[in-house]
Amino acid sequence: MARWSGGLRCLLLLTAIAFIYTQVRLFKAQSEYAEKITAAVEGENHCTSQMRLLIDQISMQKERVVSLEEIVKRQQEEREQLRTLVQNLERKGVKNLFQQNQVPVAAVVIMACNRADYLERTIKSILKYHASASSKFPIFVSQDGSNPDVRTKAMSYKQLTYMQHLDYEPVHTERPGELIAYYKIARHYKWALDQLFYKHRFNRVIILEDDMEISPDFFAYFEAGADLLDKDKSIMAISSWNDNGQKQFVHDPYTLYRSDFFPGLGWMLSKSTWDELSPKLQENHKGRQFIRPEVCRTYNFGEHGSSLGQFFHQYLKPIRLNDRPIDWKSLNLTYLMEDKFVKHFADLVKGASPVFGTDLILKINNVKGDARIAYRDQEHFEEIARQFGIFEEWKDGVPRTAYKGVVVFRYKTTTQRIFLVGPDSLEQLGIQN
User: Fold this and answer.
1) Side-chain half-sphere of 30: how many Cα atoms within 13 Å?
2) 107-112 and 204-209 as β-strands: parallel, antiparallel, unpaired?
3) Fold assignment, 93-336
4) Which of 32, 96, 283, 298 could bridge across to 240 with cysteines, CB 3.0–4.6 Å?
5) Residues with Cβ < 8 Å from 165, sequence gap 6 or more?
6) What is the DSSP string of 115-127?
7) CB neighbourhood size of 226 (10 A)
8) Residues sharing a CB contact under 8 Å with residue 127, sequence separation 6 or more, in sequence order
9) Which of 226, 381, 370, 220 has its CA nearest to residue 291?
10) What is the pLDDT of residues 145-166, one digit of tens each?
11) SS3 74
């Protein structure tokens, strides 16, 4: 019995030793397996990190390739632009313009972008009256961008010189909601005017857009205006446009006015003025004014464009374009000089009969000769303007077409003039109220 008990203890001891040995071996195996798993995970993480790094490098390389492709594309376009320009200049002989006995009065530049059909209509209108004035007014088309139809159309006319503006810089607007198109247009204007004033050295430039027709006396009008620009430095530009030039509000194609409001839509600028404007590219009148006609010398047919057709049917479509050839050389325009025009205009306003109260149109019909209506502020002006149908819009505190706050227009195409007079206008004109 004791012998059997001792054998059992030995057996249990051996079993315990075997169990402990097995557990040790199992623990060691588990530890080795855990180390291998940890190494595998670390290896996988390293591979993932390397793969991500490789993907990032590939992405960067792709971006570089795209960037290089864009640079190559730009260089090809610019090279084509230069080649075209050189060929065009050689063919047209721009340098010869200044080698002739007569120095050009002004370059005429048509600002274009992507409307080939509009551009063609504009060019045809200009060329209709250009032959007799070609040496005085060389024509340029300045295209913003690379629309092939516009380029082909411009290049098809031997009477003009083609320029191309390529702009790849991003646009940053000053205020939310502003149209990017206006910023790009401003860049194009600066580039084109810099080219014409500083590269080609013109003394004056007439700026047209690719949706305009001109009058028979367009060139004679601006030639007369060039003399005014030279003599009177208080004139910032000569304009061919009247915002209230609709058929029912104009009568006399000989009448010109000074205006504190920039009319645009066909205007002539001198190099000395551009020297001031070009660095900052902003409108800065510095108290200077504009010459504008009663009857427009340009007609804007551009219903579709960057302004999205704003005002077209109400204000642009009914514009009257002068259809009479006028000999501007025979006319004395010295009354438009600053010192003389104040008195000239004051006499017109002073001679108009004051009209007060409501039912203005009914009262105007009973007035013989010119009439004068006073407005208190912008809101009151807009109320009166709506009754007659003229432009209500103001800009920088100035009504469209206004001179010293006075807006003048004809009534029903007759000789009668209506003067809308601001609260300070009479004082500025030296008229006792």
Assistant:
1) 6
2) parallel
3) Spore Coat Polysaccharide Biosynthesis Protein SpsA; Chain A (3.90.550)
4) 298
5) 142, 143, 144, 145, 187, 188, 191, 192
6) -HHHHHHHHHHHH
7) 19
8) 157, 159
9) 226
10) 999 999 999 999 999 999 999 9
11) helix
Q: What is the pLDDT of residues 64-114, one digit of tens each?
A: 877 777 777 777 776 666 666 655 654 555 555 554 567 899 999 999 999
Superfamily grouping for domain 338-428: N-Acetylglucosaminyltransferase I, Domain 2 (3.10.180.20)
pLDDT band of residue 354 (cuts 50, 70, 90) is very high
What's the confidence (pLDDT) of residue 308? 46
Output the CA–CA distances (angstroms, integers) from residue 156 to 73, 127, 152, 161, in the order listed: 25, 13, 6, 10
Which two three-digit tokens encode residue 241?
A: 């446009």
- C-alpha 238/C-alpha 292 separation (Å) is 7
Q: What count of Cα atoms within 13 Å lies in the side-chain half-sphere of residue 248?
A: 10
Q: Residue 45 and residue 59: Cα distance in Å, rounded? A: 21
Q: Which residue has the tokens 């857009």?
A: 209
DSSP H or E run through 7: helix 2-92
Alpha-helical regions (H) of 195-236: 218-231
- Residue 391 to residues 249, 282, 364: CA-CA distances in angstroms? 11, 24, 19
CATH topology match: 93-336 vs 338-428: no
Q: What angle do CA 309, 315, 370 make, to 5 degrees?
A: 165
Cβ-count burial 32-68 (b if 16+ within 10 Å, e if not):
eeeeeeeeeeeeeeeeeeeeeeeeeeeeeeeeeeeee
Structural tokens at position 405: 């706050």
Q: Any idea where the domains of the chain sit in the sequence?
A: 40-79, 93-336, 338-428
What are the structure tokens assigned to 358, written together? Answer: 């409501």
Buried b (16+ CB within 10 A) or exposed e, 127-157: eebbeebeebbbbbbbbbbebeebbebbbeb
For 267, residues 6+ apart whose C-beta sits below 8 A from its C-beta are 206, 207, 237, 238, 239, 240, 241, 290
Q: How many CB atoms lie within 10 A of CB 418?
A: 23
Lowest mean pLDDT among 88-102, 212-226, 291-305, 388-402: 88-102
Residue 87 CB: number of other CB atoms within 10 A?
A: 12
How would you label 302-328 residue by residue, b for 16+ Cβ within 10 Å and e otherwise?
A: beebeeeeeebeebbeebbbbeeebeb
